[in-house]
Design goal:
single chain; about 450 residues; alpha+beta; three-stranded mixed β-sheet; 17 helices; 14 strands; about 55% helix
C-alpha cells in the first residue's frame, strides 16, 4: 500500500512540475471525450424528438390514406378540367369494418371545401369532416374555453368548426375565435374550439402526415357530406385542379402496441384487394417508423462514436509521444532511482501513473466540456436560429436537440482512461529498460 501511494505521489508531483505540457498532452483526450458526448447527445436528442413526433400521431394508429396516382396527375396536366377520382371508397370502409372487428376505433377523415375565409382574410382549405374520436387518436387538446366535436354535432349535422392553432392565429390574432363565424366556400360555420399547437411542423410527424396539423379545421363528417360534394377544386398555378375522393384518410387504432404490425398486415391485404393496381391508397404505420428511427439512430450513434474515437486515438498517440520524449529527458532521474534501489516494476508503475492520470484528468475535463457544449446546443441554437439575420441566411425549419446520456459519459471516460494506460505502456517499458550506469552518465 505504501508503495502504491508513494508511486502515485511521485507521478502527480512530476505532472505538476510540467503543468502546461501535461495540459497540452491531454488535449487530444479532452477533445475526444467531448466529441463523443456531444455527438451522442445530439443523436439521442434528435431521436427523442422524432419519437415524440411519431408518438403524437398515436403509436397504435394505422393510417390509410388516399393519394393521387401518377396516372391521374399526368392526365390532369393534359386536361385542366379533368376531375381525378381516386382513393378510399365506401366499399373499403365496409371491408375494414367487417374484417378488422378487433380494432378499438376506426375514424374517417374527408377533405371538403376549397377555401376558408373570415372577412377579407382567405386561405386554401384544409378542412376535414371527421368524428369526435379523432381527438383521442391524434392526442390533440382543445384550448381552454372551447370544445371539440361531439356526438350531438354529428347527429344534428351542425355547422360547427374546430380550428387549428395556426388558422386561429391567422384569422383572429387579437381576439378569441370562439363564437365567431367563418366561411368554408359558401357555407357558414361557427367556431366552437381551437386546438392547442401541435409540435409537428417541420418534424418527423409533419413529414409523416404530409401537412401541418396546425392548419387543419375539423367539422362534423355528416355536415361535410351534406354541405359539400365529394369533389374538391383548388386553384393551383393559375388553373383549377379537381379531386374526388370519398375518404381522405381512415385511422385505425389497434388495441395494443403488440397488435399493430399484424393488424397493419391485415389492413394491407384488404386495401390491396381493391387498389393494388391503381396505387391510389397508401398505408402509414407510425409504430414501424418508430422502430426504424430507433434502428437508424443506433447506427448513427455507432458511426458518430467511431468518428469521435479517432480523436481519442490521436490523443493516445500524443500521450505516447510526449512520454517517450519524457523518457529521454528524465534518463538521469531514472538512473538515480535505479541506483537507489528502484526496480523496473517501480519505473513502469511511475510512468503508468503519469499517463493514467493524464488520460483520467483529460477525461474529466472532456466530460465537462462535452456536457457544456450539449447544453449550449440544446438552449442557445434555438435562440440563435430565431434571430432575423439567421432566418434570412439559413433554413431555420430545423432543430437541434441534445439529450445527455449517462452511458456515453461513462463509456467515454473509461475509453479515455484505458487509452492513456495502453499508450503509456511502451514508454514505461522503455524507461524501465534503461541501464542504470549509462543513465547516470547521461547529460
Amino acid at each position: 500500500m505504501g508503495f502504491l501511494l508513494e508511486t502515485l505521489r511521485l507521478g502527480l508531483s512530476n505532472l505538476r512540475l510540467h503543468m502546461l505540457r501535461s495540459i497540452l498532452t491531454s488535449l487530444g483526450i479532452i477533445l475526444g471525450v467531448a466529441a463523443v458526448i456531444l455527438m451522442v447527445s445530439i443523436g439521442e436528442g434528435n431521436k427523442q424528438a422524432a419519437i415524440r413526433d411519431i408518438q403524437a400521431l398515436g403509436a397504435r394508429n394505422i393510417i390509410v390514406r388516399s393519394q393521387r396516382p401518377p396516372e391521374s396527375a399526368a392526365s390532369n396536366g393534359q386536361q385542366r378540367s379533368f376531375v381525378a377520382r381516386f382513393g378510399l371508397t365506401d366499399t373499403d370502409w365496409d371491408r375494414l369494418a367487417e374484417f378488422v372487428p378487433d380494432a378499438d376505433r376506426i375514424v374517417p377523415l374527408k377533405a371538403v371545401g376549397s377555401e376558408i375565409s373570415y372577412g377579407a382574410d382567405r386561405t386554401t382549405s384544409q378542412v376535414f369532416g371527421t368524428e369526435p374520436a379523432l381527438r383521442d387518436l391524434l392526442n390533440v387538446k382543445v384550448e381552454q374555453g372551447g370544445r371539440y366535436l361531439t356526438d350531438d354535432d354529428i347527429e344534428g349535422r351542425r355547422r360547427v368548426a374546430v380550428l387549428g392553432s395556426a388558422v386561429a392565429q391567422q384569422f383572429f390574432p387579437l381576439e378569441s375565435p370562439l363564437g365567431k363565424t367563418i366561411r368554408i366556400d359558401q357555407s357558414v360555420f361557427r367556431v366552437v374550439g381551437v386546438l392547442e399547437p401541435v409540435g409537428l411542423s417541420g418534424g418527423a410527424g409533419s413529414a409523416l402526415v404530409g401537412r401541418d396539423l396546425n392548419l387543419d379545421v375539423h367539422i362534423p363528417i355528416t355536415t361535410g357530406r351534406v354541405e359539400f360534394s365529394d369533389a374538391v377544386f383548388r386553384r393551383v398555378s393559375g388553373s383549377f385542379t379537381g379531386e374526388e375522393t370519398r375518404f381522405s384518410e381512415i385511422y385505425i387504432e389497434a388495441p395494443d402496441s403488440a397488435d399493430v404490425i399484424p393488424m397493419a398486415a391485415r389492413v394491407r391485404r384488404i386495401i390491396d384487394a381493391g387498389h393494388a393496381e391503381s396505387g391510389d391508397v397508401s398505408l402509414i404505420v407510425p409504430w414501424e417508423l418508430l422502430a426504424n428511427v430507433e434502428r437508424t439512430t443506433f447506427a448513427m450513434n455507432v458511426l458518430l462514436i467511431a468518428i469521435a474515437a479517432i480523436s481519442l486515438l490521436v490523443g493516445g498517440i500524443g500521450i505516447m509521444n510526449i512520454m517517450l520524449a519524457s523518457v529521454v529527458e528524465r534518463t538521469r532521474e531514472i538512473g538515480i532511482r535505479r541506483a537507489l534501489g528502484a526496480t523496473r516494476k517501480h519505473i513502469v508503475s511511475q510512468f503508468l501513473v503519469e499517463t493514467g492520470t493524464l488520460s483520467a484528468v483529460g477525461g474529466v475535463l472532456g466530460i465537462l466540456l462535452g456536457v457544456g457544449l450539449s447544453l449550449i446546443v440544446d438552449r442557445a441554437l434555438p435562440w440563435l436560429f430565431s434571430l432575423p439575420l439567421m432566418q434570412r441566411l439559413v433554413e431555420t425549419d430545423i432543430r437541434f436537440e441534445a439529450a445527455i446520456t449517462p452511458w456515453s459519459i461513462v463509456l467515454s471516460f473509461l475509453v479515455a482512461s484505458l487509452t492513456g494506460v495502453i499508450f503509456g505502456i511502451y514508454p514505461a517499458v522503455m524507461a524501465s529498460r534503461q541501464d542504470p550506469i549509462e543513465s547516470l552518465r547521461h547529460e
